[in-house]
Amino acid sequence: MTSKALLSHVTALLDQSGVDEGGLDHLHSGTHLLRHHAPTNLNATVYRPLLCLVLRGAKQVGSNARTMTVGAGQSLIVSHTIPVVSRITEASSDVPYTALVFPLDLDLLRSLAPAVSPAMTVASADPFSICLSDTDPGLEDALLRFFLQCEDEETRQLLAPITVREIHARLLIGQHAQILHRLLWHESSANRIFLATRDIQANLSETIVVGKLAQRVGMSNSTFFEQFKAVTGTSPLQYQKDLRLLKARDDLRTSRAKVSEIAFSVGYESPAQFSREYSRKFGRSPRQDRAFEPVD
């Protein structure tokens, strides 16, 4: 069965890398592989457009609006950049949580979308930017072939790009099709919210004026606010705040800049306010987090 073969291969890659616990950025494939031997605490992070396959164990993923559990044999598609809170709920020393994350190429999806039958693009009633479904065996087979092709330089250059194209194509005709087509249709609310989130990310330190943002993406204030929350699970202001705090956490862990400098760089005018909101979100002060060694 392909799922067992894919699990075995991912496990072997983690073993070869020496990663017994945590995450591995697999250089040749561009994927992120995960293994944990015990349930974890809640962890705030940012999801960008991606495909996540859970091969063993289970994980809970959520936003301010909702939470879903992804079990073995299931996969997530994330269509927008969104702040989430997640935790591994099923993992043990005998049956460790194992998953792979495959980043999505939106330009490639857009180039493939016109070839998809109109019947595949029927609108879904649920606009949320995270979609959960059982993993298609054909998709698992394509991912396994992709990993195998990435092992050799020649096949990595010649065959792997073809299989990447196949993986994206399978997503457009599989169970995740609706969420991706909503994103790719340029007049859709999902696409307009995508443009708004991209604007917020590009101008993270600037104060949001919701009316101007709504105007830029061609929506009324009320429709924009309603659709933004439906797609991302949070309000525009909370979305920006979450992204600011998550970027600040990354900067604290990867730079030697002062806490006040990091606070100002992500848009806070008061270091005291930054520290309060940071502590409220992460359960640690910025100074404590600087000394905290993160687990992947």
How would you characterize the overall build of this protein?
The structure is a single chain. This protein is α+β, with helices and mostly antiparallel strands. It has two domains: 2-184, Jelly Rolls (Sandwich); 186-296, Homeodomain-like (Arc Repressor Mutant, subunit A), CATH 1.10.10.60. Helices cover 48% and strands 20% of the residues. The protein has 13 helices and ten strands. The protein has helices at residues 2-17, 106-112, 137-149, 153-158, 160-173, 177-184, 189-202, 210-216, 221-232, 236-254, 259-265, 271-282, 286-291, and strands spanning 22-26, 31-36, 43-47, 50-56, 58-62, 67-71, 74-78, 82-90, 97-103, 130-134. A six-stranded antiparallel β-sheet has the order 1-2-9-4-7-10, covered by helices on one side. The protein has a four-stranded antiparallel β-sheet with strand order 3-8-5-6. Helix 1 runs parallel beside helix 3. The radius of gyration is 20 Å and the shape is globular. The model has no long low-confidence stretch (mean pLDDT 92).
Helix and strand layout, with pairings?
Elements: H1 2-17, E1 22-26, E2 31-36, E3 43-47, E4 50-56, E5 58-62, E6 67-71, E7 74-78, E8 82-90, E9 97-103, H2 106-112, E10 130-134, H3 137-149, H4 153-158, H5 160-173, H6 177-184, H7 189-202, H8 210-216, H9 221-232, H10 236-254, H11 259-265, H12 271-282, H13 286-291
Antiparallel strand pairs: 1-2, 2-9, 3-8, 4-7, 4-9, 5-6, 5-8, 7-10
Helix pairs in contact: 1-3, 3-5, 8-9
Question: What is the domain tally?
Answer: 2
Mind telling me the CATH superfamily name of the largest domain?
A: Jelly Rolls
Seen as an oligomer or otherwise, the chain set is: single chain
Terminal Cα span: 29 Å
**Overall average residue pLDDT:** 92
Number of helices: 13
Looking at the structure, the CATH topology of the largest domain is Jelly Rolls
Overall geometry comes to globular
The CATH class assignment of the largest domain is: Mainly Beta
Main structural class: alpha+beta
